[in-house]
Amino acid sequence: MPQTSRWLLLLVLAGTIAGLVASPALAIFPQLTTKLSGPAINGVVPTGDAKVDQSKLPAEPLTLDVRVRNVNLPDGTVLSVVLTDCGASPVGTIVLSRLEGQLRTTVPGCQVGRQSAILVNSGSTRILSGGAPWQV
Length: 136
Fold this sequence. Notes:
The chain is α+β, with helices and mostly antiparallel strands. It has one domain (29-131): Superoxide dismutase, copper/zinc binding domain (Immunoglobulin-like, Sandwich). Helices cover 18% and strands 38% of the residues. The chain is built from 1 helix and 8 strands; from the N terminus they run αββββββββ. The protein has one helix spanning 3-26, and strands at residues 31-37, 47-53, 62-69, 78-83, 92-95, 101-107, 117-122, 125-131. The protein is elongated, with a radius of gyration of 20 Å.
């Protein structure tokens, strides 16, 4: 293989590796928002919205704000909130009062991409979902 071809191959490989390593960091969107929707519960359609603020990464963890309304479940029902880019475990919970509730929390060690989903569950039942894609 001629010397020029070797250098060209090395340059292409280095660029590919740099692109793979840098692309997650370059794909971070500072602010993401989404509407939450779900099927009717006893004739009432739940709604909500969520916002992710990751503008201070990596110095500070992302902040997640979630608000749900018209969730026709008893007061005191605990809903778990999952961000799929952060794993399968809940990142926080919402306790319902008068069919609504909210969550504001920080999520260390996580970055949310536009194609991530947000899931709001009561036990194993999906109540609301959103994202995939989020709005920038």
